[in-house]
């Protein structure tokens, strides 16, 4: 494999990535507001349900009291068949209905005949037994909302709350029905909302007022830590850059120059040696020159050339020199690229270098194509690197980490870590095709 992709070449200062603490804080506040609205809607709905249930229960209790303490004694005291026998009961009922909470009262027989009602014209009429009447005759108290009461009079509300409750009459079991204005439920719901909503919503508002400053403080702390981390990374990169330059300079000014001098000296000495010793000198010179080339490639790995602007295409072309030395034709199509962040440029260079190393070591190819051009990734400007060959293609499994080969795995991790994509496939016409696409402005 080629040089380890874990070491990033230095190509200038590392740009500070835009922190997302602001967006996170906005998302936190937006979520809190949505929860507040959802709880408010739920509280309103629940208050309506509770108010309705309370209104029905209160109406049932009121109807039972009316039946027990008003209507039942009035029926017992009314002489059977006497004219105006319900006058006293009518007056008592009228006094009770004067506050408007009760709209009408009716006493039913099991057959559906009206025994007594606050409207005298209903007395004696047979309207048929309703389900509520039959339930009350059976001993149950039931309540229901009726939008079309069977005994409705002109000018009364169309929607009423009806309550049927058992009533013991003179010698028979009767059913007492009381009509209540339905708008009382709305009033009770309004009162209940006035009690529940301020308590529930107010508690949530106070909680959010406490949480927002805490979240803001945490976000500012994260921002400071992010700035410190970015500065630390920047310093580490600068230190690493200086160390790489120093090592490359030491290799260039030391072993490379010494070996080059030895090579020149041996070449000059060759003519003074016997002819049978000259092939040995030639081998030594070749070995020394090969060592010099290896050291120069090591210098490039330690401290790559300038990768900015057109330098990237030139550097990739230089990294393909071992393929040319091995007799593999290299065709490069490098289009002019816009200004690229240093880490993206470094990732492109390392990706191309690893791909070309794989071609040299495994592809058994005769020709290699390198394409470098501007493209679009997820709607944003990006750079596309394509390395293709006419060799044997990729193996069935490219994950060879268990064998100690990490080149492609590190290559993919590096590109994906910068928001890009890596695709390994077969080239049309035979061979392998590696495509890497990296966004120009990742993390923003």
TrEMBL record:
Localisation: Cell membrane
Record field: transmembrane: 25-46
Query: Where is the Histidine kinase/HSP90-like ATPase domain positioned along the sequence?
Result: 343-442
| Major subcellular site | membrane
Kindly state which keywords UniProt assigns to this record, in alphabetical order.
Answer: Cell membrane, Kinase, Membrane, Transferase, Transmembrane, Transmembrane helix, Two-component regulatory system
Q: Which InterPro entries match?
A: HATPase_C_sf (IPR036890), HATPase_dom (IPR003594), Sensor_HK_TwoCompSys (IPR050482), Sig_transdc_His_kin_sub3_dim/P (IPR011712)
Q: Give the CC-aspect GO terms.
A: plasma membrane
Q: Which GO terms describe its molecular function?
A: phosphorelay sensor kinase activity; protein dimerization activity
How does it sit in the bilayer?
Multi-pass membrane protein
* Name under which the protein is recorded: Histidine kinase
* Species per Swiss-Prot/TrEMBL record: Geodermatophilus obscurus (strain ATCC 25078 / DSM 43160 / JCM 3152 / CCUG 61914 / KCC A-0152 / KCTC 9177 / NBRC 13315 / NRRL B-3577 / G-20)
């Amino acid at each position: 494999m080629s040089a380890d992709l874990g070491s990033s070449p230095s190509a200038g200062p590392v740009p500070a990535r835009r922190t997302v603490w602001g967006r996170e804080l906005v998302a936190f506040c937006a979520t809190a507001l949505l929860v507040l609205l959802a709880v408010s809607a739920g509280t309103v709905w629940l208050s309506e349900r509770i108010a309705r249930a309370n209104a029905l229960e209160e109406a049932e209790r009121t109807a039972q009291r009316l039946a027990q303490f008003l209507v039942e004694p009035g029926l017992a005291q009314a002489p059977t068949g006497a004219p105006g026998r319900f006058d006293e009961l009518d007056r008592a009922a009228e006094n009770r209905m004067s506050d408007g909470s009760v709209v009408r009262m009716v006493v039913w027989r099991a057959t559906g005949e009206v025994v007594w009602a606050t409207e005298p014209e209903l007395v004696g009429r047979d309207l048929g037994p309703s389900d509520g009447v039959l339930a009350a005759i059976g001993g149950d108290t039931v309540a229901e909302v009726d939008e079309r009461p069977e005994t409705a009079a002109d000018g009364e509300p169309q929607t009423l709350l009806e309550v049927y409750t058992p009533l013991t009459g003179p010698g028979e079991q009767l059913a007492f029905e009381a009509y209540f204005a339905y708008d009382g439920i709305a009033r009770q719901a309004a009162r209940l909302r006035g009690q529940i909503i301020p308590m529930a919503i107010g508690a949530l508002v106070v909680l959010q007022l406490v949480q927002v400053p805490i979240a803001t403080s945490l976000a500012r702390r994260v921002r400071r830590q992010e700035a410190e981390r970015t500065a630390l990374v920047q310093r580490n990169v600068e230190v690493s850059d200086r160390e790489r330059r120093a090592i490359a300079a030491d290799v260039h000014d030391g072993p490379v120059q010494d070996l080059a001098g030895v090579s020149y000296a041996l070449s000059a000495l060759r003519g003074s040696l016997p002819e049978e010793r000259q092939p040995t000198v030639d081998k030594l010179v070749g070995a020394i020159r090969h060592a010099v080339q290896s050291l120069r490639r090591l210098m490039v790995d330690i401290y790559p050339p300038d990768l900015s602007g057109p330098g990237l295409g030139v550097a990739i072309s230089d990294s393909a020199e071992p393929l040319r030395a091995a007799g593999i034709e290299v065709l490069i199509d490098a289009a002019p690229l816009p200004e690229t962040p240093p880490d993206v440029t470094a990732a492109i260079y390392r990706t191309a270098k690893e791909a070309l190393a794989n071609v040299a070591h495994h592809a058994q190819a005769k020709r290699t194509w390198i394409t470098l051009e501007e493209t679009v990734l997820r709607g944003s400007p990006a750079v596309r690197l394509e390395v293709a060959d006419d060799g044997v293609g990729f193996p069935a499994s490219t994950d060879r980490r268990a064998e100690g080969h990490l080149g492609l795995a590190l290559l993919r991790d590096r590109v994906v870590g910068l928001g890009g994509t890596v695709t390994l496939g077969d080239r049309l016409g035979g061979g392998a095709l590696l495509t890497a696409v990296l966004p120009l402005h990742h993390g923003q």
